[in-house]
Structure formats: structure tokens, C-alpha cells
Amino acid sequence: LDGVYGQRWKVETVHSVIKRKFGDTIRSRTLARQRCEPIFNAVLYNLHR
């Protein structure tokens, strides 16, 4: 459990950066687009890195 928690800070940091970069609201109206939007933001984050 210690090893897993030791990696959690990395995930939390990336999540925080994505929220600051792209905002913390979902702008899409349809459910299908709402599900795609966070994935798209993660891909954009990885491309920008």
C-alpha cells in the first residue's frame, strides 16, 4: 500500500495541472462528448509536455 500511495502524488499533480490549464468544468452538452472531453484534455496535456 505504501508504494501505491507514494505514486498517488504524481497523479494528483498531473490532475491539478490539467485542471489549471484547461479549466475544471465540462463544456460539452451531450453525454458522449462529456465522456470524451477529459480524455481529450489528457491527450492535449501529453502532447504539450
Write down the overall geometry.
elongated
Rg over C-alpha atoms, rounded to the nearest angstrom? 13 Å
Helix proportion range: over 70%
Number of structural domains: 1
Distance between the termini: 29 Å
Helical stretch tally: 2
Mean pLDDT: 92
Detail the poorly predicted runs. Answer: none
Beta-strand percentage? under 5%
Largest pleated sheet? none
Which structural class do the helices and strands define? mainly alpha
Please trace the helix and strand order, writing H or E for each element. HH
> How many E strands?
0
Describe this structure in words.
The protein is mainly α and 49 residues long. It has one domain. 80% of the residues lie in helices and 0% in strands.
Question: What's the SSE blueprint?
Answer:
Elements: H1 2-22, H2 31-48
Outline:
The chain has 49 residues and is an all-alpha fold. It is 80% helix and 0% strand.
Question: What are the defining features of this structure?
Answer:
single chain; 49 residues; mainly alpha; 2 helices
